[in-house]
Amino acid sequence: MESANAVPPRASTQSMRLMLYIAGVLVFLIGIPLFLLTEQTQSYFAWTISSHLTAAFLGASYWSSCVLEIVAARQRLWASARVAVPAVLLFTALTLVISLLHLDKFHFDSPAWHTRAGTWAWMVVYALVPLVLSYLLIAQWVRPGPDPARRARLSMGILLILGSQAVLFIPLGIGLLVAPTTVAGLWPWALTPLTGRAIGAWLVGIGVAAAHGVYENDVKRIRPLSWSSFVMGLLHLVALARYPGEVVWTEMKLWLYVGFLLSMVAVGLMGFRQSRTR
């Protein structure tokens, strides 16, 4: 029998949950001009993206991140929500650095007021979110209470897929961040230094989230990641179908990319199935 004085499991703080809701709304809004107004980034985004497939890739990533953050915000226990936070914090910090490195590409001097406003909003969001999220993460970690026991370990299939994503995406993302011109040859379509680094930040974030999912090793704890992976895989496949002319379909690197998109969908489906079975 459990002691009457047992400490309850550590809950997510209200501030952290609110921040995740806010972040989810922000990334949804950022994804609109990228995924819906893909060919008009010169007017509706912080910088012009000449590759429509790259713009759609970024939009799909932002919308899947919205799913990650909203689902995490709905979890009352910290153990069930935290798979989203380190990856989001790392991604926002990297994106801030990338933005500062490429300020000359941004639309600060655009004649259209809405373009200038969106560009400044981008900079403000990425300057503030890493600071606020870092503070909230520290406050969350020092909150007392244990984690609940892992009651539904991940299947070997999910662990292998997540582990493979981490092993591939993190080094590739770091390579694009550090040497985008050199490493861009490994990517299925053409990248500029700015878009290469932008995609690199996403790959590092995805890889860290996948590695975190392996560490958590529990169906309920990776629920935000399962939903996000499923949506990300589908949206990226849609982006590829929209702009098939930007890739060479006979290249092996393209089919490796498609394979990893399918693996993201598989993580979601396998997570859903195991959760329902449990």
CA radius of gyration is 19 Å
| Share in helix | over 70%
Secondary-structure class: mainly alpha
Percent strand equals under 5%
Distance between the termini: 24 Å
> Which runs of at least 5 residues are low in confidence (pLDDT < 50)?
none
Q: What is the string of SSEs from the N terminus onward? A: HHHHHHHHHHH
Biggest sheet record: none
Report on this structure.
This protein has 278 residues and is an all-alpha fold. It has one domain. It contains eleven helices and no strands. The chain has helices at residues 14-35, 41-44, 52-73, 78-81, 85-101, 113-141, 156-178, 180-183, 193-216, 223-242, 252-277. α3 packs parallel to α9 (193-216), α5 (85-101) packs across α6 (113-141) and α5 (85-101) packs antiparallel against α9 (193-216). It is globular and about 60 Å long.
Features:
278 residues; mainly alpha; 11 helices; 70% helix
Topology record:
Layout: H1 14-35, H2 41-44, H3 52-73, H4 78-81, H5 85-101, H6 113-141, H7 156-178, H8 180-183, H9 193-216, H10 223-242, H11 252-277
Helix pairs in contact: 1-3, 1-6, 3-9, 3-10, 5-6, 5-9, 7-9, 7-11, 10-11
Question: What's the short story on this structure?
Answer:
The chain contains 11 helices and no strands. The protein is an all-alpha fold. The radius of gyration is 19 Å and the shape is globular.
